[in-house]
């Protein structure tokens, strides 16, 4: 099994926290994942879902930023912006999507309880 330095350090810290050798910890963890494959698959799916959300939010923020630039240009030239409320709603929606995805990254166990 190959681990990068960060993965190795994190795994070693996990093993030390429960008083196990690295090899024992890896074996125990792998067997636990193999016994509960539906939960393991759900964890992997959740990670993919979060990444999908983040990429979608990034696109939304790009569109919202472009629209906001158009609004600023119109306002700076003395123009009217009849779609200002829609632009603000788009920005709020994108910001909420980013917050939701960030919360899922920060609190991954929240999805398991849902």
Describe this structure in words.
It is a single chain. This protein has 114 residues and is an all-alpha fold. 83% of the residues lie in helices and 0% in strands. It contains 5 helices and no strands. It has helices at residues 5-17, 22-35, 37-76, 84-106, 109-113. The longest helix is centred in the middle third of the chain and has 40 residues, at 37-76. It starts with a helix and ends with a helix.
Task: Describe this structure in a few short sentences.
With 114 residues, the chain is an all-alpha fold. It contains five helices and no strands.
What keywords describe this structure?
single chain; 114 residues; mainly alpha; 5 helices; elongated; disordered C terminus
Average of pLDDT? 80
Helix % is: over 70%
**Biggest sheet features:** none
User: What is the rounded distance between the termini?
Assistant: 33 Å
Q: What's the order of the H and E elements?
A: HHHHH
Question: What's the helix count?
Answer: 5
According to DSSP, the number of beta strands is 0
- Radius of gyration (CA) equals 22 Å
| Assembly annotation | single chain
The poorly predicted ranges are 110-114
Strand content: under 5%
Structural class: mainly alpha
Overall morphology: elongated
């Amino acid at each position: 099994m190959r681990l990068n330095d960060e993965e190795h350090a994190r795994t070693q810290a996990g093993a030390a926290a429960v008083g196990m050798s690295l090899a024992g910890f890896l074996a125990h963890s792998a067997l636990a994942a193999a016994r509960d494959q539906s939960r393991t698959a759900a964890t992997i799916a959740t990670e993919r879902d979060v990444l999908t959300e983040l990429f979608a939010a990034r696109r939304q923020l790009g569109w919202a930023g472009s629209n906001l630039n158009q609004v600023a240009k119109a306002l700076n030239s003395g123009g009217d912006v009849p779609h200002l409320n829609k632009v603000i709603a788009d920005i709020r929606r994108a910001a909420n999507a980013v917050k939701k995805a960030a919360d899922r990254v920060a609190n991954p166990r929240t999805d398991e309880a849902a």
